[in-house]
Amino acid sequence: MPTEVILPKVDMDMATGQISRWFAEEGAKVKKGDVLFEIETDKAAMEIDAPASGTLRNVTGKERVDIPVGEPVAWIYADDEVYESGTTPQNKAPISPPAGEMSAKPAEGGAVPPKSRSFAPPSALPGISPTRGEIGQSQGERATPLARRLAREAGLKIAEIQGSGPRGRVVRADVEAAVAAKGAATPGQPAAEIPVEIPSAPAAAKPISDDQVLKLFAEGSYELVPHDNMRKTIARRLVEAKSTIPHFYLTLDCELDALLALRTQLNAAAPMRKTEKGEVPAYKLSVNDMVIKAMAMALMAVPDANASWTENAMVKHKHADVGVAVSIPGGLITPIIRHADEKTLSVISNEMKDLASRARSRKLKPEEYQGGTTAVSNLGMFGVKDFAAVINPPHATILAVGAGEERAVVKEGEIRIATVMSVTLSTDHRAVDGALGAELLGAFKRLIENPMGMLV
């Protein structure tokens, strides 16, 4: 039987993906391991290999079109298998590997990510199994991950919803229609005639529709730029984070003069190393590098704040893995400095430069931006004085860093000039209470104002 080629799940949050380009065309001879096509996710471009050798047929996956995870995009016929033009082996049992086991590697020679795709999703987000077994369910229960979540939140059963998607797949519109139909049921109708339970929580208010938005502006006064996968993912995760995590915020000021003086000394003492461009310093520390180190050490000093919330238990982390928000074209990504509490400033600095560079070219591996125990977002370089950041699950904290600027401060009854930086800690109140958050922020302030503590 022909081998089914599906769109695999190559990222924890991936529900759909786009084929950016095919490397093989209809009727081409391919060998197992040959690159078939390139997937564009919200964070990276991944090359997908052929799961078998043979002739590529029935190429249904179109380029630059959203395709659900697990959807067939082509079939590979062995040399001894008969191909009938105009038909697809949809009714034949697929023998393709699980979606999580298809070979995927970053485009342009990047490193190959782990073959296992059974990631544990953040507790605040719905879990989506990447295995083919879940995707290829019975015809009556096929549904997109988003449709499953919406149905679960509304108390509906997927098996009782008529799907309008490919091969009867239940999509978002089907669930919304079922919710509307349930709401229209008459109050006197017997409970036995209603096939679903009424959810205990009130339904969330629907956002304003696209048509309603566009009616507010004169025709011809705007242009429509379709959302790419990155922007869709950012929008979804931010809405979920703000609606499921009870945020609260703590702000204080840190004096930077001692830190700036130490940074100057350390950079001046950096040894020189030979490169293709000549001799360059072995490291060049930034204020943000020292902020990362201070945040990691503060979490180790206040271990109860180095936690993640789950419904069944508090996850207490043994190391401080600090994510750092990096702006890239079309959005942002948060690469992670693992075990930042144990690394020297020079190691953190060089690692951060490498991660940021590869993030901007979309060459990060999933394990380099997934997970982490906290995050740092720095807008000080843009002159922003202070702001509050949104927590990125499964983190329980995120530190928003403002610009360092000269301000008048009172010391021993005298007005003096000091370089001051405002920072705001956003915390998940389920995991970090007010007093605990204040203790963490106080530990961070002590390290920033007495930076020699980061060297011992």
Task: Supply database-style keywords.
456 residues, alpha+beta, six-stranded mixed β-sheet
What does it look like?
- The protein starts with a strand and ends in a 7-residue tail after the last helix.
- It has a six-stranded mixed β-sheet with strand order 10-21-20-19-15-18.
- The longest helix is centred in the middle third of the chain and has 16 residues, at 229-244.
- The chain has 456 residues and is of the alpha+beta class.
- The model is unreliable at 91-103, 107-140 and 186-199 (pLDDT under 50).
- It contains nine helices and 21 strands.
- The protein has helices spanning 132-135, 145-154, 172-183, 210-214, 229-244, 257-268, 287-301, 345-360, 434-449, and strands spanning 3-6, 16-22, 29-30, 35-40, 45-49, 54-57, 66-68, 72-77, 104-106, 247-255, 272-275, 278-281, 307-309, 314-316, 322-324, 326-328, 331-333, 336-337, 374-378, 397-411, 414-428.
- α7 (287-301) packs across α8 and α7 crosses α9.
- A hairpin with a 2-residue loop joins β20 (397-411) and β21.
